[in-house]
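Supplementary Text 2. Reproducibility record for the structural model of the 268-residue chain.

All settings were left at their defaults, and a single model was retained for analysis rather than an ensemble. We include the record here because the model underlies the residue-level annotations in Supplementary Table 4.
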Amino acid sequence: MKPKKIQPAVRFLVRRACRTGTARRADLLRFYPAAQATHAKWMNEAILIAPCIRRKGAGSAACLAYIGGPLPIWASFECLLTELEGDAGPEITGVLENELPIFITRWTRKTPLDPTALSKIIQAIAHEQAIVIRYVGLRKEEKARLRHIYPAGLERMGDQWRLIGTDLDQSGHPLRVFVLARILGFEAEISPPQNFVKPGIADCSERIPVHLNSALTSDQAVAIAHELGIVDGRITINSRSKFEFYRRFANQEPGRDIVWPLLEIQKE
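Retained model, structure tokens:
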């Protein structure tokens, strides 16, 4: 039997009670206005699916309170961070802005220079259509040029959004990554080559050995191993992003034909 779908208002109640300690009818009225009887029904459903909360009080003064015990996975604090990364609002997270101020630092733009390009790229992915874009990489002396690609999907890496697609200009149609912000224009939709086989872009990961910097203290080493997910001296990383990972966290130097660093800091 298929499990019953949990109403958004019920999820809100459970998340708020678990994450802030209590969830009141006034909280429901803010985001999910309804009759008192409906609110009472939602509270009853919340108690049934989350044994870690209990009702306190009665009538309009009733509230749900966290009494201890394991949280539902979708109401955990780990999931809260994921929700916040997705720009979820308090009606989803159960936590008000004044209760948990969030400051987001963004260094880069997410979208192509051509404001119409993103919608056309997404439509091409959905309709399995090959495209031509005007793109500029970071090789020395490189200028923007037309790239014939079969777009397979989007990828978010840190604060950078990228387009994953096969390079139709190269033999064997290798998988390539194109930073969205470096797409200067969308040129056209095209037909893929004859006998073209749609690529799979399932994450291809590797477990690679890593060595922590010997200058780290023991506490620093523990923290960094946790931060980077190092287990038994190895780290699992997406093959497609290995170079960027090494460049950020290790001593990987870009190739000699790459313009790097991108900024030159001048003292005033």
